[in-house]
Amino acid sequence: MTSAAPSRPHARAVRQLLLGLVPVLVVGLVLLVVLAVRLPGTQAPLAAADATASATVVRDGLDPAGRGVRVSFTDAAGEERTGVLVLRTAVDVAPDAAVTVQYDPAAADGSRVYADGDAAHGAVGDVVFGLVLVALVGLAVSVLTGLRLLSRRRLAGRPTTAVTVTHLVVRRGLLVRSWLELVTPHGVRWVPVHWAPEVDRARPDSPALVHGDPATDALVLPVLDGQQVWPSGRVRRSAPRGDVRQAGVDPEAPDVGLARQARSDGVPVVLAPVLGLLWAYVDGSGAAGFVVAGALAAAVLFWLPQFLGSDPAATSR
Question: pTM to 2 decimals?
Answer without folding.
Answer: 0.87
